[in-house]
Write a structure and sequence with these properties.
With 300 residues, the chain is an alpha+beta fold. It has a single domain, classed as Dihydrodipicolinate Reductase, domain 2 (2-Layer Sandwich). It contains ten helices and 14 strands. The strands form four sheets. A seven-stranded mixed sheet has the order 6-7-8-3-11-12-14, with helices on one face. Strands 1-2-13 form a three-stranded parallel sheet, sandwiched between helices. A two-stranded antiparallel ribbon has the order 4-5. A hairpin with a 2-residue loop joins strand 4 and strand 5. The N and C termini lie far apart (43 Å).
Length: 300
């Protein structure tokens, strides 16, 4: 649905800034976008989105990129048993993250890993220890960034992965029908029905968004390390969730970039192409900062 929506908007010769996930290659729409003189920005959310913007900036700073690691997660501020998780966006898309194979880059080549694989524990100031695991979020970066090693990992509170793996390996995420008492049901449909109420944010429950990007590379044959960190909380005054803030404000910042005529190119562009231009990068970051979405940059 996301791909077809973008395709239709382009066919009507309208510019578009899109944040939806779709499995199709957005560059398949490049020829049509150029023909219709349209600016199409895809994956304009938090990750992909801000992560791509920063990656694009680093592509201009570093002579070569040895590794690019993206850690991202939307979580409830308060941990509650049994899953210690709430879905800040479509729960069915969350389950897709747990089942869809993850593409990563190893030694310059794209390889496919099992979702939830290669878990590791990471400490975040103000939150504590979280666990990270492979998910398929690199998207256009697989084509646009030349890096020896690259991966995106999703963040959860410790213990969540094991619970999800039990469900997955037992077949609760299967789309193949099973027969129970003479009736056929889809396990995923039942699982969704049971999980979604537990994963929905209730009245007064707050969410947080965490993003860490670690980039190692070289400048003039010398090692250079960069880290970008974001810790964002729900705007309780306005009732805007953190996930809505970090994805929506990124999209509107890029929309303003286009409306202000600062970005005039026609075709299909992921955010890393915007980040390559320092002025465009700073414009988007300033827009985010004015709304309290602030990245901390650490260099060594």
């Amino acid at each position: 649905m996301g791909y077809e929506c973008v395709k239709n908007v382009i066919s009507f010769k309208k510019d578009i800034v899109d944040i939806s996930f779709f499995p199709e290659d957005p560059f398949l729409l490049e020829e049509e976008a150029k023909k219709n003189r349209v600016t199409c920005i895809v994956d304009a959310g938090i990750a992909p989105g801000c992560s791509n913007l920063i990656a694009g900036r680093m592509m201009k700073i570093l002579d070569e990129i040895d590794s690019l690691m993206i850690y991202v997660g939307g979580l409830p501020l308060e941990r509650k048993w049994p899953y210690e998780y709430k879905a800040p966006f479509s729960p069915i898309d969350v389950i897709e993250e747990y089942t869809r194979p993850a593409r990563v880059v190893r030694f310059g080549k794209v390889v496919t890993m099992e979702a939830l694989s290669e878990s590791e524990l990471i400490n975040f100031n103000g939150v504590g220890t979280l666990e990270a695991f492979n998910t398929d979020g690199l998207r256009t970066l697989l084509k646009t960034v030349k890096a020896k090693n690259m991966a995106e990992k999703t963040l959860r509170y410790p213990g969540h992965i094991d619970k999800i793996k039990v469900l997955r390996e037992t077949g609760f995420f299967s789309k193949q029908k099973v027969e129970i008492n003479g009736k056929e049901i889809v396990p995923l449909a039942l699982t969704s029905k049971l999980l979604f109420p537990l994963w929905s944010f209730g009245e007064g429950e707050e969410d947080i968004t965490l993003l860490r990007i670690e980039i190692k590379g070289k400048i003039n044959n010398k090692n250079a390390n960069y880290r970008f960190e974001l810790f964002d909380k729900m705007d309780t005054e306005k009732g805007i969730s953190s996930m809505a803030r970090t994805t929506g404000y990124t999209a509107t910042a890029i929309a303003r970039l286009i409306l202000s005529k600062r970005f005039r190119e026609k075709g299909v562009f992921p955010p890393e192409f915007i980040g390559k231009d320092i002025n465009n990068y700073l414009f988007v970051m300033k827009e985010l900062g004015s709304r309290g979405v602030v990245f901390k940059e650490i260099t060594n």
